[in-house]
Amino acid sequence: MTATAPAFSLRDITGESRAFPTGRPSLICFVKEDCNTCNLTASVLEAFHRAWGEKADVWMVGQSADGNAILKDRHGLTLPILDDSALRTSLAWGFDIVPAVYWIGADDTPRPPLEGFVRDEWEALAQRIAGELKAPAPELAWSELPDWRPGCGSKHLDPEIHDRLLAETEGSPIRARRIEIASADDIDEFMFDQGFSDGLPVVPPTPERVLRMLTGTKRDPQDIVAIVPPNMAPATVEKIAINAVMAGCRPEYLPVVIAAVEAVCTDEFNMHGVTATTMGASPVLVVNGPIRARIGMNMKLAALGNGNRANATIGRALRLVIRNLGGARPGGVDRSTLSSPLKFTMCFAEWEEGSPWDPLHVERGFNLEDSVVTAFAMTSGPVQIVDQESRKPDQIAGTLGLGLEGMFLSKIHRMPVDALLVVCPEHVRTLTVDGDYSKARLRERIQTVTSRPLREMVSNEISGAGIPLASAAKMTEAQLATPVPKFASDKNIHIVVAGSEAGKFSAAFHGWVTGAAGSTVVSRKIDC
Amino acid sequence: MTTILDPTDERVPVARQITPRTGDISGVIGLLDISKPRGNVLLDELESLLAARYPKVAVKRYAKPTFAKPCPSDLRLTIRSECTVLVEALAD
Fold it and tell me: Buried-most residue among A69, A353, A445, B38 (CB within 10 A)?
C-alpha cells in the first residue's frame, strides 16, 4: 500500500455511493463470499460496526455483487457492504489474502493489513480501536472463535484477472491504441476485415495477453527497437509484443522476435527491397545458441516444417510486424509476382550439437554461448537435394553442389547471390566418414563441381537467358572456354546443419540480390 | 465488448471503414431488395434513374428471401462475384 490508503468510491449493497477517505476513522475489510474465513469474520465485523458505527466507518468490501447479497442474508449484516466486483480497489490496496482488514485511525498512518484470521491479532486490533475511539469494545465471545484460520487468495490475484487489471491501471505500460470490438461483432472476422492477418487466424491481442507477452523481455515497452519499412514506422517493444501475441508466440520467444526485427530493419538487410521485389523475397531466420533449447525450438526432425510452436510463431511474428507496422502488403509495396510460403513464416534452429563445424553464429563472429538470430533474404526454398547413394565424402559434397546449381536457373553461373545450404545429419555423416571435412573444403567442392565453360552461359535457342550473343561475339575462344563456378564467391555459400538423423535429404534456400544493391545477411545477438 | 491493442503504426483510424468513394459510377451496380414491403418500388425507381443517367452501367437485381435473417452466404458470394458496388434498399 502507498503512503496513504488509496481513495476509492464504491457503491454499497443498497446502491448508495460511498467514498473513502470518509473523514472519520475507518475499518475496511476486504472479503469474498466463497471464503470460509471471510464468513467467520463477518459477525465480528458486524459487532464492530454496531459498537463503533457512531464514531467510525466499518465497511466490508466484497469482491462480487452476488456474493455480497449472500453474505448480507447469511449473517444478517447491517454494516455497509461495498461492491468491488471490478477488483480495481482490491488491486490498488495491494493485499494478497482475504479477509484483509485495515484500520485507518485518526493519525491516518497506513499499517499492513491483518490477512486471514488470527484471533489474538483481531482481539488486539479491537482493543486498539476501542482505545483510539474511546469507546468500549464490543462484547464478543472471542474464546469461541478459532485460534487461527488461513484466508483465501484474493480474487484480484487470479492470473486471468490480474493481468487485465494491471493493463487497465494508470501505471500500465500499454500505450497502443485500444480498439473496442462490439460484443455483437465476431472478433476473428473483425481482425481479418481490418487487414491485421496474413490470411490465417490470429490470436486477439488483448491488453492482458500483451502484458503477459511483455514479461518475456526486460526491455522497456516503449523502447524503439527499429524503424520498419516501408512505412518507416517505429517498432516499440510493445508493438512487437502485440504482433507476437497475434502470431501465437509465448513470452519467452519475444527476445528472438525483437532481435529478428532489429536484424531485418537495417540498411544492410534492406527490408524495403526484400518486400518490394517482384521476385518475392522474405527473411529466413536461423537461431543459434542456448536459447534454442530453452524455448523448445526444433532443429531436428521436420526442423524446416510445421509442428513446432516456437519455429512457426517467431517467423510469423516477424512477418506480422513487417505487415502491420511496416505496412508491407501484397498489392501495396509487396509486388511479388508469385510470392512464397516463406512470407507466412520461416524460422528454424541449427542443430549445433549434430554438426562437425563451428555453428553459424560462431562463424559470424559471436561466442558459442551467445544466442543469435541470423536473417537471410531468400526467394525460394527449402529445395530438396536428394542423394541416397553416395558413400564417399567428395561424392556427397558434389551432390550438394549440383543441387545448388539449379538456383535461379541452372545455366547461370558466377552469381553474386547467397544460398543457404541446410545439410542433413546423414549427409554430414557421409561427408565426415573419413575424418574432418571442413566447410571451406565443402564450399570449394561446390564451386568445383558446378564450374562450366562460360560458353554454356551464352543465350541460345534452348534459353535466351544468360550472356547476350552480341557480348559473346566479342569474347575470345579462351574466354568462352573459361570454367566458371555457380557462385561468384565462396562467401555466398552459407552452411548450417539441421534435420532428423534418418534420411539423406539436404535442402537449400536460394537468395535474392546479394550485396549493397540488394540484401546482406545480418545477425543480431538475442538479449536474453 | 472485447478490447484489443492496435498492431499497426496507427496512421489509419480503426473502425468499420466505408468503402473508399471513387467519384464515378461504373461497372455493375447490384440492387438488393431485402424483401421489405415496397423495397422493390424504390429499387425500380433507382434502376430507371441509373439507366437514364448512366446508360453504360449494368444493373443486376437481387432479393433476400426474408428481411428477418442475414443474407444467405450463397447470395452474398454471388453478389460479390458479379457486382462492382451494391445498393441495399431498406424501404418499408
Answer: A445
Q: Is the peptide bond before A99 cis (omega within 30 degrees of 0)?
A: yes
The set of residues, in sequence order, having a beta carbon less than 8 Å from that of A383 and lying 6+ positions away, is: A403, A406, A507, A508, A509, A510
- The reply to whether A396 touches chain B by the CB within 8 Å rule is no
Q: Whole-prediction pTM value?
A: 0.76
For A253, which DSSP code?
G
The answer to ipTM > 0.85 is no
Reading the block at residue A516, the C-alpha cell is: 549493397
Rg (CA), chain B: 17
Could you give all domains of chain A from N- to C-terminal order, each with its CATH number? 8-157 (3.40.30.10), 187-454+475-525 (no CATH)
Sign of CA dihedral A127, A133, A134, A140: negative
Q: How far apart are CA A385 and CA A149, in angstroms?
A: 69
Q: How far is CA A439 from CA A88, A159, A259, A446, in A?
A: 61, 50, 27, 10
- Looking at chain A from residue 156 to 185, which residues have their Cβ under 8 Å from any Cβ of chain B? 174, 176-183
The CB-side HSE value for A172 (13 A sphere, CA atoms) comes to 21
pLDDT in tens, chain B (92 residues): 889 999 999 887 766 666 777 788 889 999 999 888 888 899 999 999 999 999 999 999 999 987 777 788 899 999 999 999 999 887 66
Window 199-228 of A, Cβ < 8 Å to B: 204-207, 210, 228
Q: How far apart are CA A1 and CA A219, in angstroms?
A: 26
Torsion of CA B44, B46, B49, B53, to 10 degrees: -130
d(CA A128, CA A118): 15
Residue among A28, A52, A153, A139 nearest A97 (CA)? A153
Chain A residue numbers touching B3 (CB-CB < 8 A)? 178-181, 206-207
Closest CA to A25 of A102, A119, A89: A102
